[in-house]
Design brief:
With 317 residues, the protein is of the alpha/beta class. The chain has 2 domains: 119 residues, ornithine cyclodeaminase, domain 1 (2-Layer Sandwich), CATH 3.30.1780.10; 184 residues, NAD(P)-binding Rossmann-like Domain (Rossmann fold, 3-Layer(aba) Sandwich), CATH 3.40.50. It has 11 helices and 15 strands. The strands form 2 sheets. Strands 10-9-8-11-12-15-13-14 form an 8-stranded parallel beta sheet, sandwiched between helices. Strands 1, 2, 3, 4, 5, 6 and 7 form a 7-stranded mixed beta sheet that branches. The N and C termini lie close together (12 Å).
Amino acid sequence: MRWIDAEAVRDATTPFDALFDWLEAAHRKPPALTRRALIEVEAPDGTANAFLTLPAWAPGEGLGVKMATVFPQNEKNGADLPAIQGVYQLFDGSTGAPAAVIDGTMLTLRKTAADSGLGARLLAPPEPEVMLMVGAGGLCPPLIEAHRAARPSLNRILIWNRTAARAEARAEALRAAGIDARAVAEIEPAARDADVISCATMATEPLIRGAWLKPGCHLDLVGGYTPAMREADDDACTRARLFVDSRPFTIGHAGDLVQPMAAGAIGEDDVLADLFQLCQGAHPGRGGDTQAVTLFKNGGGGHLDLMVAQFIARAAT
């Protein structure tokens, strides 16, 4: 059984294009059998620490389980540890034998970014130029990388974060890599200017307002993985064409859907398609409408972890 470390995971998934292709093909197959178990404990700072287990089984192909922890105070307190950490155990689909243990922290970062990147590849406007990244945590760099891989026309990156110094540090790193990037102090004007917006925060109150979204904008929501968390208001949901990565891991779980559904602003039928339907051609997504506002809710899920773990195990051989 192999150990695949964080560096090997990053190398295997760089650039994102091959992983996008893999995920698109995997979504044309029957969904894996999945479960989800989440345990939350209140932290001293009032946030919630979480332990998440995500098993998945694609019969005949592979099975595995991700065990991940979410400790938000790691980043808030300046600790040299990411908020999300974990490991992935991959098993052989034919024999059930343990096949590989994969660094789950890096797998989660790359999987989450690839999930949103595939959503952008299928839903974002064809030639966007300005991207707003809301949140400057560990997901900030891979999400920007994945969106730029999906839409290479993105040539200006704006970054907003509650702690301005962190946003500036992320922007400085991008500028050092030759990318036009800057931190912004106010979120509203940046959101109004953006063709693509990606949010990866621990927010419990909306940060993005539907009234700010310009025609053709694509909104990618990554945070809000519990019913109490959300990143966009009801107006964003009613203005946009709604899509998710998978219905089972978003509807009933993600606050950006749970809360507007509870308020009667939207219903389950307003979620037009998930990645399975989009990749299988059952829904055209944006189609040819360059003025449509699209919203993609990234919910993750064990099936995605398994897809990416299988890709990594093959690529890292």
